[in-house]
């Protein structure tokens, strides 16, 4: 590259617009809640309206194989999702976004969006405060999006599949346990876990 050639834009600049010099909020609904992997200065319980936590993404490597794909979580349309929202200081925003794009956007099954999330703790909840946060929504046009799976099919896949990071059921169990530790009740996932554990081994 010539000395005076412009540097390439970071990958995330093609997906979201971030105000220069401003802090950034990031919404976590799965492993980002308990293992964000980036520096933050505050975090809050929060709800994202219009989307719910769902096993709707096929896993061909980490929790399954191309022949027997497992399932991992995505944010899909409808309902609402309780999670954790983190505030990242302006100085850390570029590095945080670089990290998140490497972690979440490898196969681009998610669509990054800046969406309003409602804070749920302290006086903020009483005042109905909300913030605009970076959220990773499942791309319904992506080949790994699992459209229309009934609960029985989801149960069978999670019970039977295994990938590089272990059995698919371990991913579900880890999620349910961490949600409980964070004080987040997801009745749908708890019911799903009970059904998966009931499948004969």
List the keywords.
five-stranded mixed beta barrel, globular, two-stranded antiparallel ribbon, 6 helices, alpha+beta, 28% helix, 201 residues, 7 strands
The profile of the biggest β sheet is: 5 strands, mixed, barrel
Low-pLDDT segments, ≥5 res: none
- Structural category: alpha+beta
Whole-number mean pLDDT: 91
Cα-based radius of gyration, to the nearest Å:
18 Å
Number of DSSP helical runs: 6
Helix content: 25-40%
**Biggest sheet, spatial arrangement of strands:** 1-3-2-4-5
* Through-space gap between termini: 57 Å
In what range is the share of β-strand residues? 25-35%
Shape: globular
For the secondary structure, the number of strands is: 7
- Please trace the helix and strand order, writing H or E for each element: EHEEHEHEHEEHH
Structure description:
By secondary structure, the protein is α+β, with helices and mostly antiparallel strands. The chain has helices at 31-34, 93-104, 122-127, 151-160, 168-181, 187-197; strands at 24-28, 42-59, 70-88, 110-119, 130-138, 162-163, 166-167. The strands form 2 sheets. Strands 1-3-2-4-5 form a 5-stranded mixed beta barrel. A two-stranded antiparallel sheet has the order 6-7. The relative contact order is 0.20.
What topology emerges from the helices and strands here?
Layout: E1 24-28, H1 31-34, E2 42-59, E3 70-88, H2 93-104, E4 110-119, H3 122-127, E5 130-138, H4 151-160, E6 162-163, E7 166-167, H5 168-181, H6 187-197
Parallel strand pairs: 1-5
Antiparallel strand pairs: 1-3, 2-3, 2-4, 4-5, 6-7
């Amino acid at each position: 590259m010539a000395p005076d050639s412009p540097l390439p834009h970071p990958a995330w600049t093609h997906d979201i617009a971030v105000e220069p010099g401003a802090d950034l909020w990031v919404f976590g609904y799965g492993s980002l809640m308990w293992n964000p992997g980036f520096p933050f200065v505050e975090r809050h319980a929060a709800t994202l309206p219009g989307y719910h936590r769902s096993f709707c993404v096929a896993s061909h490597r980490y929790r399954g194989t191309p022949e027997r794909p497992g399932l991992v979580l995505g944010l899909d349309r409808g309902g609402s999702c309780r999670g954790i929202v983190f505030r990242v200081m302006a100085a850390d925003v570029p590095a945080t976004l670089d990290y998140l794009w490497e972690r979440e956007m490898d196969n681009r099954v998610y669509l990054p969006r800046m969406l309003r999330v409602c804070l749920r703790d302290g006086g903020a909840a009483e005042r109905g405060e909300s913030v605009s946060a970076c959220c990773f929504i499942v791309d319904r046009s992506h080949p790994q999006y699992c459209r229309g799976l009934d609960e029985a099919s989801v149960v069978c896949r999670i019970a039977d599949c295994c990938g590089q990071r272990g059995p698919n059921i371990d991913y579900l169990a880890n999620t349910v346990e961490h949600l409980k530790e964070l004080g987040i009740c997801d009745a749908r996932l708890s019911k799903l876990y009970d059904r998966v554990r009931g499948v004969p081994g």
